[in-house]
Each structure stands twice: as structure tokens, then as C-alpha cells.
Amino acid sequence: MRRIAANFAVASVAAGMVAIIAGLSMTGRWPGHAGLEHFAPNGIIATPSEAVDTVEVTTRSGEITFHRGPDGWLSGGRDNAGGGEISKQIETGLRFLNVSAPLRILAPDQYRPGDLAAFGLDPPELTVALAKQGRELARVSFGATNPADITQYVEAAGRPGIYLLPRHVGGEWRLAAARAERLAQGSFLLSAPIAQIWAVEIVAEGQLARFERDNAGLWFHHFGQHTHVSPADAHVADPVRAPLIAAELAALDRAEARKIGRDFASDASDEELEKYRLARPAIILLLYARDNPAPIARIEFGATSEDGAQQYVWDPVSRGIGLTSSEQAEHIRGLLELAKEPPARAGQ
């Protein structure tokens, strides 16, 4: 009993820290009024965010370069997502690198060069290079997470050893890169790929349904369709329903939305919202990234077009109105059906 209580206490403390870290990743602030800028530089790099004008992010799928503009960070000469959400993520990522102290450091004599692959650092999962006027200031490589999936192995150019940083530090850069790649590929309904999403909420008919991933990345409805594993009370998805949920989300992931009238990112008026029945949307879709308590994307569904083939949607972040296939609402209704408890088996 003592061991279970101790494990529960550790899990509670860890959950509290994840909640605080998640708040930091979205707001840049600790609970209260102190922002990240008030923390003493104690991170893996000493370079402050204001000293950087170029960020190059390399993942296993490609390379993206961000340049600081007068109103935020740009990629390919364009703003990254409505409301500058990717710009905010880059600023937060830079501050994390500057203030997040390593939780552990492995000295060079504690591992062999051939061990780098085991740490996910040969090649790295993701590399972030910071520069000022063409001169590189710092380069940080992110590898695999530790067995507990809480920290991440990291190397910094010019600094010997392997560092363990909290998982959210690299996560911020991974999400920013994924969103920028998606923006460059076309006009998608979802501003972030489902691969980077760890929770989905649907508000419809006055009810809320929430889907989450378990530790293995499988989807479940956070009410039923999963089991709890003590003592950490972890969730384990129903292996039958998990792929069905994933299939509906994959369809939404591929969905496109085209602008109507003005620029898709232009401000929508109250009259337009009322006209397209977006002032009181029938469905609201919210997407959450890992470790982030606030949604990183919100899509509201309004009226259908005259022929019924398309549906008006609104992104309150970018305040842009668009049209998407009416099939997307069907995928959301499919998810709501999967949120219902399975019928009792015969003989029960």
C-alpha cells in the first residue's frame, strides 16, 4: 500500500508539472503574471530570442527556414497561420531553449559515440539552428524520449555530453515545423496535422465528446472504450474502436477548405457569420497538441451551400471563412457515433 501511495504521489506531482509546462507552452507564462522573459537564462543555450533573426528547423521529412519579420516570423515570405500562431510557437520555443535547464547531463565518458543512435541522435529526430545575419549562433539536436517518455535526449553544438530536457521543449519545435509544412502544402481544413494532435473535442447538440491518445498513441473516447492501468492510472485504448476513430480523424486530416470572397485570413464580420450560420455553429471541433492545455486549432461548422455539397466553416483564430466538403461533417458525426458506448454483448 505504501508503494502504491508513493507511486500515486509521484504521478500526481508529474501531472502537476506537465500542466504547468503545458500552460507555459501556450501562454509563455507561469501561473500568475511572470512571463518566461523573467526567468534567468539557465537553458541549454545562452542565446536570447531577440538575438535571433533566422531559425532553420530540420526534421526527417525536410527543412524549413523561418525569418523574423516586422510582425513576426515568416516562412517562404508569408505569415505562418492566422493570428501568427506559429510565430508565437517559435518565440516560445526560443525562450524554452534559453531558460529550460537540463534535468540530467551525460558526460562524454558515460557513453560511447556508437550509442548516439540508441539515443535517437544519429541521425537526430529534429535539429534547430539559430542564426543572426547569416552567422550561426547555436545548433540543438533532439533525439528520442527516455523510456518514461517524459524527457528527451538532446545535443548542443559546442557543448560536450548529452542532455535530458523536458519533452515539451522539442515538442514546440516539432509542432511549429509540422504546421508550417502543412501551410505550404495547400489549404487544409485543419491547420495542424492529426499526427501532432493528442486530443480532439467535438461540441454538438449541447454535448461534448473528447477523444485522446493512450501512451501507445492509439485513440479512445475519454469516457468509455478504454481501461485504466494502476498505479499510474494510465489509459489503454480499446483495440477494436481505436482504428475506427483513427480512420475518421484521418479523413478530416486530408480535408481541404477554400477561401470565399476575400483572403481566407481576413477578418470575418458579424453579418457574414450570421449569414453563414456561423454565429451559432452546429458543430465545433477543437484540436489539442501534446502537453498543451489550450486548443491549437478550432473549426466551427455552419450552413451548407445551396447544392448541399459544401459547408461553411470558420476559424476563430484566423477569423477567416471558408468552404469545405459536407462530407467532413459526416466524419464528425461518425466520431460522435463511436463515442457512444458499445451495445452490451449477448448474455451479459
What report would you give on this structure?
The strands form 3 sheets. The chain has a 9-stranded antiparallel sheet with strand order 4-3-2-1-6-7-8-9-5, covered by helices on one side. The chain folds into 2 domains: 32-183, no CATH class; 186-338, no CATH class. The chain is 26% helix and 32% strand. The protein is an alpha+beta fold and 348 residues long. The protein has helices at 2-27, 85-99, 167-185, 242-254, 270-275, 327-338, and strands at residues 54-59, 62-69, 72-75, 78-79, 104-106, 126-132, 135-145, 151-156, 159-166, 197-204, 207-213, 219-221, 226-229, 234-237, 257-259, 283-289, 297-304, 310-315, 320-325. Helix 2 (85-99) runs antiparallel to helix 3 (167-185) and helix 4 runs antiparallel to helix 6 (327-338).
Strands of the widest sheet, in order across it, are: 4-3-2-1-6-7-8-9-5
| Structural category | alpha+beta
| Overall average pLDDT | 81
Reading the helices and strands in chain order gives HEEEEHEEEEEHEEEEEHEHEEEEH
**Helical amount among residues, as a percent range?**
25-40%
Whole-angstrom Rg: 22 Å
Distance N to C terminus: 33 Å
Sheet-strand content, in percent, reads: 25-35%
Gross morphology: globular
User: What does the largest sheet look like?
Assistant: 9 strands, antiparallel
| Helix run count | 6
Number of strands: 19
Residue windows where pLDDT falls under 50 for at least 5 positions: 1-40, 343-348
The tally of structural domains comes to: 2
